[in-house]
Write a structure and sequence with these properties.
Layout (H helix, E strand, L loop, with lengths): L13 H20 L11 H12 L8 H15 L5 H7 L13 H10 L2 H15 L5 H26 L6 H22 L2 H13 L2 H6 L2 H4 L4 H14 L13 H23 L11 H4 L2 H7 L5 H10 L5 H5 L4 H12 L19 H4 L28 H31 L1 E4 L4 E4 L6 E3 L2 E8 L10 E9 L6 H8 L6 E7 L9 H4 L2 E13 L5 E2 L12 E8 L1 H9 L15 E4 L7 H13 L5 H8 L26 H5 L25 H10 L3 E6 L6 H15 L5 E5 L2 H12 L8 E3 L15 H26 L9 H25 L3 H5 L22 H30 L3 H12 L2 E5 H6 L1 H7 L5 E4 L7 H5 L19 E6 L11 H5 L7 H8 L3 E3 L2 E2 L4 H4 L10 E2 L1 H5 L1 H4 L9 E5 L5 E4 L2 E3 L1 H16 L7 E5 L2 H14 L11 E4 L8 E7 L12 H8 L2 E9 L1 H4 L6 H7 L6 E4 L18 E4 L1 H39 L15 E2 L2 E2 L21 H5 L10 H9 L24
Parallel strand pairs: 11-16, 11-17, 12-14, 12-15, 13-14, 15-16, 18-19, 20-26, 23-24, 23-25, 25-26
Antiparallel strand pairs: 1-2, 3-10, 4-5, 5-9, 6-7, 6-10, 7-8, 7-9, 21-22, 27-28, 29-30
Helix pairs in contact: 1-3, 3-8, 7-8, 8-12, 16-18, 20-24, 27-28, 28-29, 30-33, 30-34, 31-33, 43-44, 43-48
Length: 1349
């Protein structure tokens, strides 16, 4: 925004004025870009105080509207950053009790009557002001000055709107934006309890809401945004909360307050004016909230009477009324506003549809355009540091998440329509699609099959089901068909209707004639033969191509459509919907998440000890274990050694009878900070663990899980992550600890990617336990035989337990009595009843047993083994009672599993099922918590419900959040919701900002020490683990490179072919040539990752790789090319990073993205960008200082190849070559011509030799299969065939074509191993089939870590 230097304040010098303007412009730019606004300024306290004092003393009425809007933008940013001590100290006192000095006398007395504690402070304030009129002047005048400026701006805007032709249209727009910015600022203050406490009463006393509604702007067509902002402001003003005590008000309390106001009004009217208006005392309260009806009732009263009435009710004093235009109408509006019923019933959210329709998707007020710059306020809720109540928290998240989902659906619809290019035929009213799209199919028909009656207390149908028909016959590619066949329960369809195009505008809705958009949830899929699939059983195959999907429509939207005249026949008219859009499974979870938020809103059940810190109030350590009372079952660790607390192990067996009795030793040696984090997490309450890159967050989480498992045998732990990959990593490491496999359970679709021989899914664990049951019954049968009892007891677990009590225990008790009476070891050993049962121990059972103590110890160990066997039998007994796999799985989840792992998305998907099953747990351990949305972090804490008379906080004992707030936040697709609404805020980062106690891991072991120096400045006290200084791969230099990291200056130019699609050709070419150089000297492509900060550059680099790296075997497969954001949580040995931008810093300006980019490489990092630009950015200076300590021209050691250097990482090479990008191009071309020619020759000789060897082996085998083809046959599972140009034997790696002579061609054949000949024939038979093509919209870098629905 342009900034006009203030005229009303005299600066000491031009330099001071220029410095102020420069600082303000920098703050505005950062605020618009979503960057940390205040860190740079707050480094200098004197400069901060001077700047803020000048800023708050400006008279906004003397500035142009654009500059005033900029000032308010910065004010709002300051009040949203009150966790910073300097800002809190400066700004919070400007909305404190000093504001009450400016209240009207009657309102001030009313506030004191309601809250007597205020009287002392206000009296003291009044006395100080009488002695010194300048006392607290800034505090007393800040908000009143802003409010006065707002009212003057409203008057100016109304004046401009009354003569629109006489003024510039841009000026009117600027004034409207300024009015909206005033309201935005006040809404932000009302959304936090510390700033709301006194401001709310002041705004009520000044009747701001009524003033806004009476303006011409509010009535004008140009004031739509202003009206939306007024609506949001009104919601903030009437929010049900006690402003002084911070207690949320129930509907009953709100109704009681409303009735008290109505009663007071009627009594005053009856007492003073019953002769003039006798009926007012008897009218319904709804009449009093209507200004027109109220004006009619009060018509007999004079203006003076109405003024007296308002004065008696403390609504408006005489001075205010006398200085207001049309005072009578104004006072009646105040009376109506005062007596309007504002009972905020949060159950109204049940009447909101969960799917967006066409009006929502293309409504710029709800879903702003992609080009939104932040210069205009929006009537949208914002995420903040603090919330007024849990209902406020859930409502804001519900609305923002719904809008974000709508934006995602809108992008999918627009992308699919553009690619399909539909043509509407008016004569037949049919739509023809010119091109196919992998996630859309024409809709053959839709029929409503069920409308369930409403439930008690609701008006909408309880359930609406429909049948959708579509056909798969036109799908060309097998992989696309498989995607459609894999559709299952909870997947989401979007139904889109098209008609004749309205215009050729850029708006897709008008351009392609989009009429209707509705969503639905799949129940199951049918074919014409009666087969049914819901996606749960992959063995079910549907026949033919015709499909009928039974789906569940949104009852709210269906009822609205049926009742509306325009859409009453929408579902019965053929052709209303033209095609189906299939949402990706990972994108189909939004409905379940919204439903979960809505359920939580109807019955919020947050642990009481988490409530204050969740809302951002109270002491920052209120949920820390030091502030909580220990529960009764807490074990005191103060007497234990540190090693036993950190490396907690199961109780060792006194005698190790079997190999399974051996306890696995710890595999990880934890640092001091890691040990501290593990110790803290054992305590009840909230624990935060901050883990910088490479500090072993996963190992810490696994050890915490193990310790809680060993310490609390009756407690259940819930393990939550954002991605399936991270969850599987933690789960596998947990399974490798000393934990019984029957207590482990992995939920969600990601279990299929678990790299384990065991199946830890629900079905897999049930199968494991059933098999374990059979094994245990075999052991029981063996025990029966060993003591001479009928093996019939071993048929069921129930019978086995009877056998245990009737036969096993008596024999053991008899032997114990004998052992206590007879000290002759040899005679007692012969009478041991279970000798035959223990015939398979590691060491013969009574080997080297010569004393009574040894005998007692051994037999006791044997008895413990028998007891544990029957304990397991008892656990398996319930699985005999349940007859279905579903019941067994649910029992396993609720009763037997002690460590349950799932993603946060799966938790939202299945919350209703968990509540129905009575799922209970004691601990939540959440990894990647800084990458999880705030609301998605809360949902796993609310998966259990207790009866009304039980507090769930007694069950949920501890929450452990592990993450790194200095890395990238959760991904939000819409940049407006990210920057303006702060939807990308995680609960973890919010708690850190609030000052919640945390433990930081302070030793990294991922990368070289000098690479860690690039981001070490961001983490206080970050050191290196010992192996970083001793491991040879960290000590040796990178062959071919002088330095282990460099910032390579590239004098290129950025360009933007599409919005936000930045590219830099020269930078991309230089990076690719560096990659080619690495490949030519022997680096494996799998060890190299190419990163960039923009998707446009990623596409460009891929294109250049295809052009500059031909498909030659020497270059092999291209490296992974992706963006920094998508590579978070991953690493590689070498990283090449392109920064792209040359005019402004762009995305890398965010230090969180910078930290991610700098911490992905283990051994070598080479950055390409414009040095002059990035070195001047304040946020990047600490890293750039380290980077620029090395030359900015790429420095190479051309005498080294991979694995041949003995040079230390800090030593210079003997043949150094410093290159410009042009020189690098020449070097790579020269090397390629030499290296590739030599490689071709060697490869040709090797292949001819392989053919000759294969011919000799063929002669040695009489029965050999010959396969020859003049066409390319193909490849499968790493082994290949030949064509008329080259011949190949059996190899493990792909090889490139090679020219051979005609003589060699005649001898070509394939000789696969004997066990693969059948497969050879199968591959040859399918050789001519086309390779399935991939669609452009399914990018290989898409994040598929979210759970399927």
């Amino acid at each position: 925004m342009p900034w006009q230097a203030p005229k009303q304040r005299d600066f000491a010098s031009k330099e001071e004025k220029a410095e102020f303007c420069k600082t303000l412009e920098a703050l505005i730019s950062k605020e618009l870009d979503g960057i940390d606004v205040w860190s740079e300024l707050l480094t200098n306290k004197e400069k901060t105080d001077a700047f803020l004092t000048t800023l708050t003393s400006l008279d906004l009425t003397k500035l142009d509207p654009s500059s005033s809007s900029s000032i308010l933008l910065i004010f709002g940013s300051a009040f949203r950053s009150l966790e910073k001590d300097e800002l809190r100290t400066f700004f919070l006192k400007r909305v404190s009790y000093q504001l009450f000095h400016r209240l009207s006398p009657r309102r001030k007395l009313l506030e004191i009557a309601l809250f007597p504690k205020l009287k002392r402070s206000l009296t003291k304030l009044e006395n100080q002001i009488q002695k010194d009129p300048s006392a607290y002047f800034a505090e007393r005048t800040f908000i009143p000055n802003i409010l006065s400026s707002f009212l003057l701006t409203l008057a100016k805007t109304d004046s401009l709107l009354s003569h629109p032709r006489d003024v510039d249209a841009k000026m009117i727009i600027d004034y409207i934006i300024l009015c909206c910015r005033f309201l935005e600022f006040l809404i932000d203050l009302l959304s936090q309890l510390p700033t709301r406490r006194f401001l709310h009463s002041y705004l009520e006393d000044k009747h701001l809401l009524t003033h806004c509604k009476r303006t011409a702007l509010f009535q004008n067509d140009a004031g739509k945004l202003f009206r939306d902002m007024v609506t949001l402001f009104q919601s903030a003003m009437v929010f049900p909360i006690d402003n002084q005590q911070g207690v949320s008000l129930t509907n009953a309390e709100m109704e009681s307050r409303h009735c008290a106001k109505v009663t007071t009004f009627q009594r005053v009217v009856y007492k003073r004016f019953r002769e003039k208006v006798p009926d007012v005392a008897m009218v319904a309260s709804s009449v009093l909230s209507d200004a027109k009806k109220l004006a009619g009732l009060l018509k007999p009263l004079t203006d003076a009477d109405i003024l007296d009435l308002c004065d008696d009710l403390c609504i408006c004093d005489r001075v205010t009324a006398e200085h207001t235009d049309n005072a009578r109408q104004f006072m009646i509006s105040l009376l109506a506003e005062r007596h309007t019923r504002h009972v905020v019933d949060h159950s109204e959210i049940n009447g909101v549809g969960l799917y967006p329709d066409e009006d929502v998707l293309w409504n710029p007020s709800i879903i702003p355009p992609d080009k939104y710059t932040g210069r205009t306020p929006l009537a949208l809720p914002k995420q903040g540091m603090q919330y007024l109540s849990i209902q406020d928290y859930l409502l804001r998240n519900f609305m923002l998440l719904q809008y974000e989902t709508s934006y995602s659906i809108k992008l999918d619809i627009e992308d699919s329509i553009r690619k399909m290019n539909p043509i509407y035929d008016p004569s037949t009213q049919n739509v023809t699609f010119m091109r196919p799209h992998r996630r859309t199919l024409p809709l053959a028909g839709l029929e409503i099959i069920k409308v369930a009656p409403p439930q008690l207390g609701f008006t909408r149908p309880a359930d609406v089901r429909a049948e959708i028909r579509y056909d798969l016959r036109n799908i060309q590619h097998d992989n696309v068909r498989r995607e459609w066949e894999s559709i299952g329960q909870h997947d989401i369809f979007i139904l889109v209707g098209l008609t004749e195009r309205v215009s050729d505008s850029d708006d897709v809705r008008s351009q392609y004639g989009v009429t209707y958009v509705r969503g639905c949830e799949v129940i199951d899929i049918h074919d014409n033969d009666g087969n049914v699939s819901n996606g749960a059983d992959p063995t079910i195959e549907l026949r033919g191509t015709s499909r009928r999907a039974r789906v569940r429509l949104d009852p709210v939207i269906y009822q609205r459509d049926v009742l509306s005249p325009e859409t009453s026949e929408l579902y019965s008219t053929p052709g209303s919907f033209s095609f189906i859009l299939r949402r990706r499974p990972e994108a189909s979870n939004f409905k379940a998440i919204l439903e979960t938020i809505r359920d939580c809103l109807n019955k919020p059940d947050v642990p009481t000890w988490m409530n204050d810190i969740l809302l951002g109030y109270g002491s920052a350590d209120s949920a820390h274990y030091t502030s909580l009372e220990d529960s009764d079952d807490e074990e005191d660790d103060t007497t234990k050694e540190d090693y036993d607390v950190v490396y907690r192990q199961p109780k060792p067996k006194t005698v190790q009878l079997y190999q399974s009795d051996v306890i696995k030793p710890p595999k990880v040696v934890f640092s001091e900070s890691q040990s501290e984090a593990i110790r803290i997490a054992n305590h009840p309450g909230l624990s935060l663990v901050v883990g910088p890159p490479g500090t072993g967050k996963t190992d810490v989480a696994v050890q915490i899980i193990n310790n809680l498992y060993q310490k609390y045998p009756n407690q259940k732990t819930l393990v939550i992550t954002h991605s399936n990959a991270a969850l599987n990593d933690i789960f596998l490491k947990t399974a490798d600890m000393n934990i019984d496999p029957r207590h482990l359970l992995r939920l969600g679709s990601g279990v299929k990617h678990l790299e384990s021989d065991d199946d830890f899914s629900k079905a897999g664990r049930v199968e494991y336990i059933l098999q374990r049951r059979l094994d245990l019954l075999d052991l029981v049968a063996k025990l029966c035989r060993s003591i001479g009892v009928d093996t019939g007891f071993a048929h069921t677990c129930e019978a086995s337990l009877h056998f245990y009590t009737q036969h096993v225990i008596p024999r053991w008790e008899a032997f114990q009595k004998l052992l206590s009476e007879n000290k002759d070891v040899d005679s007692v050993k012969g009478k041991y009843p279970f000798m035959a049962f223990f015939d398979d121990t590691v060491v013969p059972i009574f080997h080297d047993v010569s004393t009574p103590d040894q005998l007692t110890q051994l037999t006791s160990a044997c008895w413990e083994h028998i007891q544990s066997t029957f304990d397991e039998v008892d656990d398996c007994r319930s699985f005999e009672l349940f007859r279905t796999a579903g019941d067994r799985g649910n029992y396993l989840l609720t009763k037997q599993a002690r460590i349950v792992a799932m993603t946060c998305t799966h938790a939202a998907l299945k919350r209703r099922d968990f509540i129905r099953l009575g799922f209970q747990y004691d601990t939540i351990i959440m990894e990647e918590s800084a990458q999880i949305l705030d609301i998605e972090t809360l949902i796993p804490m609310m998966l259990q419900e207790a009866p009304n008379d039980v507090d769930t906080s007694k069950r949920l004992k501890r929450i452990v959040l592990i993450g790194d707030h200095n890395q990238l936040p959760p991904i939000v697709q819409n940049p407006t919701f990210q920057k303006y609404c702060h939807l990308d805020q995680s609960m973890f980062s919010r708690f850190i900002r609030l000052g919640v106690p945390s433990v930081s891991l302070t030793a990294q072991g991922r990368m070289r020490s000098e690479l860690a120096d690039l981001f070490r400045w961001r983490y206080s006290g970050l050191t290196d683990m010992p192996h970083v200084k001793t491991n040879p791969e960290f000590l040796l230099a990178n062959p071919g490179f002088t330095h282990t990291y460099q910032f390579v200056h590239v004098e290129g130019n950025e360009y933007e072919p599409q919005p936000h699609f930045f590219q830099n050709l020269k930078e991309a070419e230089t990076l690719v040539r560096t990659y080619m150089y690495m490949r030519l000297i022997g680096y494996a492509s799998s060890r190299i990752t190419i990163l960039t900060t923009y998707n446009g550059q990623r596409h460009l680099i891929k294109d250049i790789l295809d052009r500059m790296c031909p498909l030659h075997s020497y270059y092999g497969k291209h490296p992974k090319v992706t963006t920094v954001d998508k590579y978070q949580g991953q690493q590689n040995d070498f990283v090449l990073l392109s920064l792209v931008r040359t005019e402004r810093a762009g995305h890398i300006w965010d230090t969180r993205r910078l930290v991610v980019a700098l911490s992905r490489a283990r051994l070598g990092l080479y950055i390409f960008g414009k040095t002059d630009l990035f070195s001047e950015v304040w946020e990047l200076k600490p890293a750039m200082k380290v980077l620029l300590s090395r030359p900015t021209k790429l420095s190479l050691c051309t005498d080294e190849v991979k694995n041949t250097t003995t040079r230390k990482h800090d030593e210079a090479g003997t043949e150094q070559l410093t290159l410009e990008p042009e020189s690098l191009e020449e070097l790579v071309e020269k090397m390629a011509s030499i290296v590739i020619t030599a490689a071709d020759k060697a490869e040709s000789e090797a292949r001819i030799k392989q053919i000759q060897e294969a011919e000799e082996r063929l002669k040695a085998r009489k029965e050999a299969n010959y396969i020859y083809s003049d066409k390319w046959v193909g490849k499968k599972e790493g082994w290949f065939f030949g064509n008329g140009e080259f011949g190949i034997g059996y190899y493990k790696d792909p090889v490139a074509p090679m020219h051979v002579s005609e003589d060699v061609k005649r001898k070509m054949y394939i000789l696969p191993p004997m066990d693969k000949r059948q497969k050879t024939e199968e591959v040859a038979a399918t050789a001519d089939k086309p390779t399935p093509e991939s669609d452009d919209d399914d990018d290989d870098d898409d994040d598929d870590d979210e759970d399927d629905a």
